[in-house]
Design a protein that fits this description.
The protein is of the alpha/beta class and 414 residues long. The protein has helices at 15-22, 31-44, 62-70, 80-88, 105-113, 123-132, 170-180, 198-213, 240-258, 270-273, 306-310, 404-412, and strands spanning 2-4, 7-10, 13-14, 26-30, 50-55, 74-77, 96-100, 117-120, 137-143, 165-166, 183-188, 220-222, 263-266, 277-288, 293-297, 316-318, 326-332, 352-355, 362-365, 386-391, 394-399. Helix 2 (31-44) packs across helix 9. The chain binds pyridoxal-5'-phosphate. The site of pyridoxal-5'-phosphate (PLP) has 19 residues, from helix 10.
């Protein structure tokens, strides 16, 4: 992303031109950023053998997944749909892990039929798996009793978390494995999403390594994802070199004691794609009412739910007048809920000092590449936007805009 002559360019193309060509609202992704982040994170960890698996829940656009595959990453999935998308993107089943929190046996069976390893989430599921597939191979997700993340909803370790088997249940894990002849290929954890403090990651890592010490014959240990990105200028970027260095140091120590070069896995999602993505929208109406200057745009939390759901901050730019004179404004969506605003925190509206927006202007909502489209809905019966990939001055449609037929066909066909 860059600003030239006060106008915003994405992947070398003027944002206004992208809207002219592909219409509004529109998700735009910069390919170069995805490749840069993928290389950065792989280079940050010196330890080998290692595998970085892209946690594709962040963004399941198949063309984006193909780019990530080209960069040599594997993939972390949590549903039949994500497994399907990963296979369509060309990932080999051996590169795919299926993390199965409360998923149905239909989904598990589908993944197994594709030769994909299942990451067991509970002792109950492990017992059932053992009965169904005695002698099968599994990974076990551990809750290290440490959690971290940008919002309570996204903290997936600790006593309030529904995920994994508590770290002190190793004896039960081994008992069930023995009873059904299950082979434990790896242990796994994921403590939360949006971690900007490397220490939390390392603390949890040590707990998982303690668990791993008590299980013989592991092929890999997977420390999950969660590495955060800055959403506002004032937020500091995580020192990925430092984190990678610490991960390597701890893991090398472990492998020496364990007597084997176990494969190290991490599963970033957000880190790889968040900063590549932008949601472009058009100003429909502006009104100065009692307390706020409302800038009404042609999208809403149906297309980017993070502000409404978590009170998340996303940088907002004026595509055609980036450094224009500014005033306090509320950027509001087009859905029938007053919570549908993009300039907000968890409590409600927080006006933002932004270049003055007028009808027809293009608004650019930044850092929307992760948990943007993948969490989008058809609420208010509005189709989801198109997605476009931009690179070195060229734009390519990577998902067409939905139509009303896409929304209603499944009920009209009954
Ligand atoms: C099991 C698992 N791994 C990895 C991730 C990726 O997290 P992030 O996008 O924060 O890196 C998630 C996100 O929820 C997850 O549930």
């Amino acid at each position: 992303m860059m600003v030239r002559d006060n106008r915003l360019y994405l992947g070398g193309i003027e944002a206004q031109k992208l809207v002219d060509e592909f219409s509004s609202p529109l998700y735009v992704y910069e390919e170069a950023t995805i490749r840069e982040r993928a290389r950065e994170i792989q280079n940050a960890i010196d330890y080998v053998p290692k595998q970085v698996k892209y946690s594709c829940k962040a963004n399941t656009n198949i063309e984006i997944m193909k780019i990530i595959k080209e960069e040599g990453l594997g993939i972390d999935t949590v549903s039949r749909g994500e497994v399907f998308a990963s296979l369509e993107a060309g990932f080999d089943p051996s590169q795919i892990l299926f993390t199965a929190n409360n998923v149905s046996w239909d989904e598990v069976e589908y993944a197994l039929s594709k030769d994909i390893l299942i990451n067991i989430d509970s002792l109950s599921q492990m017992e059932q798996f053992g009965k169904r597939y005695p002698g099968g191979e599994i990974t076990v997700r551990i809750n290290p009793n440490i959690g971290a993340g940008h919002h309570n909803h996204c903290i997936t370790g600790g006593p309030e978390s529904k995920f994994g088997v508590n770290y002190d249940r190793v004896a039960d894990i081994k008992r069930i494995a023995k009873e059904y002849g299950l082979i434990i290929r790896g242990v796994h954890q994921h403590i939360g999403s949006g971690i900007l403090d490397p220490e939390k990651f390392i603390m949890a890592m040590k707990v998982l390594l303690d668990v791993a010490r008590n299980i013989d014959g592991l092929d890999f240990i997977d420390f999950g994802g969660g590495i955060g990105v800055p959403y506002r200028d004032s937020e500091e970027r995580i020192d990925i070199e430092l984190l990678g260095g610490k991960i390597t140091e701890e893991f090398e120590k472990f492998c020496k004691e364990y007597g084997k070069s176990v494969i190290l896995i991490i599963e970033p999602g957000r880190y790889l794609v968040a900063e590549s993505g932008f949601l472009l929208a058009t100003v429909i109406a502006v009104k100065n009412e009692s307390n706020h200057r409302f800038v009404g745009i042609d999208t809403g939390f149906n297309h980017l739910v993070r502000p409404a759901m978590y009170g998340s901050y996303h940088e907002i730019l004026h595509a055609g007048n980036a450094h224009g004179e500014s005033t306090l404004q509320t950027v509001a969506g087009n859905l029938c809920e007053s919570g549908d605003t993009f300039t907000r925190d968890e409590e409600g509206i927080v006006d933002r000092d932004l270049p003055v927006f007028n009808e027809g202007d293009v608004v650019c909502i930044c850092t929307a590449g992760a948990y943007g489209y993948s969490m989008a809905s058809q609420y208010n019966s509005r189709p989801r936007p198109a997605e476009v990939l931009v690179h070195e001055g060229r734009a390519r449609l990577i998902r067409r805009r939905e139509t009303l037929e896409d929304i209603f066909r499944s009920s009209l066909e009954i």
